Amino acid sequence: MNLQAAFGAPLTQLFAAKVADYQAARPDYPADLFEWLAGQLPADPRVLDLGAGTGLFTQSLLARGWEVLAVEPEAAMRAACDARLGAHPRYRSAAGQAEALPADAADFDLITAAQAFHWFDVGPARRQFERVLRPGGRVALVWNDRVAESALNRELDALLTEFGGHGRAAQTADNDRARAHEFLGADLQQWTGPHGHRLDQTGLQALVFSRSYMPARDSAAGQALMPLLAALFSRHAANGQVELPYRTLCLMGSLRC
User: Fold this and answer.
1) What value does the mean pLDDT take over residues 202-219?
2) What's the pLDDT at 7?
3) DSSP letters along 58-108, please?
4) Looking at the whole model, is its pTM more than 0.90?
5) Nearest alpha carbon to residue 120 among 144, 100, 140, 138
6) Sheet hosting strand 91-94, strand order edge to edge
7) Through-space distance between the first and last CA atoms of the chain, rounded to whole angstroms
8) Structure confidence at residue 257 as a pLDDT band (50, 70, 90)
9) Cα distances (Å, whole numbers) of residue 161 to 29, 58, 149, 236
10) Which of 22, 95, 186, 252 is the most exposed place for a label (fewest CB within 10 A)?
């Protein structure tokens, strides 16, 4: 499935107006995941973090002491990542995407993509990954999945479906996990663990509007959504915050058939 076609806009445009909301409200990733990744890699690996966005996942890779190239196609997102992480001595960034990686051959031990695999054109992406990975190199695809059994998440999903239009429907219909298993190859490994994310009402609004398929805040649909979000927050808040439960999943493979 070509999600960019479903959205009717190039990938470089989808998040241009979403940067502030993305920074304000997207969840980070569990520390245990990075411990697990470290156990699968050589000492001092070189990492290409693809679809780095504003640098949430990149920041945790750098915290391990690893050298990281953050690759992000959208200029405003990449600028936000640079502002967050540019002072780190082992960080650099570049424009690029899965089908056109800005890297030399056999240059990286690990390629990571957090919340980004659904955008890949998998055939060209696989060829690019095989080109830039060193012998024995790995690919780690990561998702923060909101726990469907949570009443808060069920109600939030209903609003996302109501207001998210064709883009939401396309993402929901896309079986990216099955495609990820095929993409990663026969020696796939898996890590999963619980995670949580606490937000005040402004943060919950930002989380919703950070989605690529959601309308702009100042659109008619965005204005209609605001009181519904306020009501949802009031039903579930305690001490001025809601907590969204997540389950984080990482699939890792070497692309071997």
Assistant:
1) 96
2) 46
3) HHHHHHTT-EEEEE-S-HHHHHHHHHHHTTSTTEEEE--BTTB--S-TT-E
4) yes
5) 100
6) 91-94, 67-71, 46-50, 108-114, 133-146, 242-253, 189-199
7) 22
8) low
9) 25, 30, 17, 19
10) 186
Percent of all residues in the chain with a pLDDT value above 90, rounded to a whole number: 88
Beta strand pairing call for 91-94 and 189-199: unpaired
Task: Please tell me the distance from the alpha carbon of residue 111 to that of residue 129, in angstroms, as a whole number.
Answer: 8
**Two structure tokens written together for 76:** 């405003």
With 80 as the cut, is the pLDDT of residue 239 above it?
A: yes
CA proximity to 115, closest of 64, 174, 50: 50
The answer to whether the beta carbons of residues 122 and 61 sit under 8 Å apart is: no
Q: Is 215 exposed, middle or buried (0-12, 13-18, 19+ CB in 10 A)?
A: middle
* Count of all residues that appear for the chain in the document: 257
- How many Cα atoms occupy the beta-carbon half-sphere of 79 within 13 Å? 8
